[in-house]
Amino acid sequence: MRTELGANFVRILGYFREDGEKSVARIEEATHREDAAALVLPAHTMKAEARQFGAEPLALLAEKIEQAGRRALESRFFPDDIIPEVARLRPLYEQTMTLLEEETNPLCQRRAFGKKPSNQEFGRL
């Protein structure tokens, strides 16, 4: 995705950070109020945006929360079993953002998966 978006990647990642923080807060608030209707849209938004960045663990968790909210709307009972999932959302979101932002940081050393840098000792060429 970064290659496809080029310079726009950083800007779009900033939007994801803003939207994501709002979505997490809204999901937490809706859970606290046991408001299934207020749970669905921010969970759906989080799922879609996470998938755009390839953040599948975050997308799957948001999808699970969204589906629980939809079921709660149909049954008219708030699912207490979703509370632990909502509690996992913020840490996973923050971890995901850290990983995505490391990809955009020019100061972070990038290397191929499974390869060690050839210069492993200080002062050795």
Labels describing this entry:
125 residues; mainly alpha; elongated; 0% strand
List the helices and strands and how they pair.
Blueprint: H1 2-5, H2 8-33, H3 36-52, H4 56-75, H5 83-104
Helix pairs in contact: 2-3, 2-5, 3-4, 4-5
Describe the protein's architecture and organization:
This protein is mainly α. The chain has a single domain (2-47, 57-102), classed as Four Helix Bundle (Hemerythrin (Met), subunit A), CATH 1.20.120. It is built from 5 helices and no strands. The radius of gyration is 18 Å and the shape is elongated.
Structural class: mainly alpha
The average pLDDT value, as a whole number, equals 85
Based on the coordinates given, report the CATH architecture. Answer: Up-down Bundle
What is the CA-CA span between the terminal residues? Answer: 34 Å
DSSP E strands, number: 0
Radius of gyration: 18 Å
